[in-house]
Amino acid sequence: MAEDNVQLNDREKRRQYLFVIRQLARRDVKRGNSSAFLGQLWNVINPFIYMITMVIIFSAIFRSGIPNFPVYVLTGTIIYSLFNSGTTGAMKSLVAGKIFLVRTRIPKNVFVIEKVYVALINMLYSMIGYVILVAISGITPNIFMLLVPVDVAICLVMIYGIGKILAVINVYFADIEYFYKILMLLLMYGSALFYSVDRMAPAVQMIMSFNPIYIAITIARICVMDGYAPGPMLWVKLVCYAVFFYLLGTLVFKRGTQDIVAKL
């Protein structure tokens, strides 16, 4: 009976935490769109605006020569935006949740999970326009497109781990936000969002092959645009990154949040 009560209590706690995550996510989504006339529709339109800009610049002016260039750009943009918004939101999660941390006993990792969850919600809205673009581009649906959610799921694990590290650092060193913006800018240009790596020098290609965002984008592009299963090495690299950052993030978060309330 005691074990049954413990299991029931654990289940009830998980339900409560999931409820808190959903409520916080709903608040953040509403707050993010409260001042916008189009509201949540911006999450669908915004990737398209970026994609159209890149297509005009690199296709019409510089002649990129990449088949289905709009899909190529939008695939990279959506994956990059998920990583950027998820890690950036998680970085600010503990500081933003100061009141809840001080007044409640909610586990601290709930605030990081909530920010990653919001980033996923925004991505799902963006996928509406992405699916439409893929359909009108004449790309034939294939079974390997079902691997894209797996790609995204692995990315979410990695984002969660990195987010926990950044959240702790941001409490002790607030300037990390500015350094991280620069890092994300470098990662963006190193993720081949709007160009092909085939034109790069072999040494540059090798360096880019270790960029986790580029790996995730490449997997998605191969599944959607090329219509075959990505090579095992791409999956191994992405999974290794996800496991490494998840374990490191768990360790840093556990040690770094022991007395974190006093630092907020």
What does this structure look like?
With 264 residues, this protein is mainly α. It has one domain. It is built from eleven helices and no strands. The protein has helices at residues 2-33, 42-61, 69-91, 93-96, 98-103, 109-136, 148-172, 176-189, 202-208, 212-226, 232-256. Helix 1 (2-33) packs across helix 6, helix 2 crosses helix 6 and helix 3 runs antiparallel to helix 10 (212-226). It is globular, with a radius of gyration of 20 Å. It starts with a helix and ends in an 8-residue tail after the last helix.
What count of domains describes the coordinates? 1
From the helix content, strand content and strand pairing, which structural class follows? Answer: mainly alpha
Strand content: under 5%
Q: DSSP helix count?
A: 11
Query: What's the Cα radius of gyration?
Result: 20 Å
In short:
75% of the residues lie in helices and 0% in strands.
Secondary structure topology:
Layout: H1 2-33, H2 42-61, H3 69-91, H4 93-96, H5 98-103, H6 109-136, H7 148-172, H8 176-189, H9 202-208, H10 212-226, H11 232-256
Helix pairs in contact: 1-6, 2-3, 2-6, 3-6, 3-7, 3-8, 3-10, 6-7, 7-10, 7-11, 10-11
Top keywords for this entry?
264 residues, mainly alpha, disordered N terminus
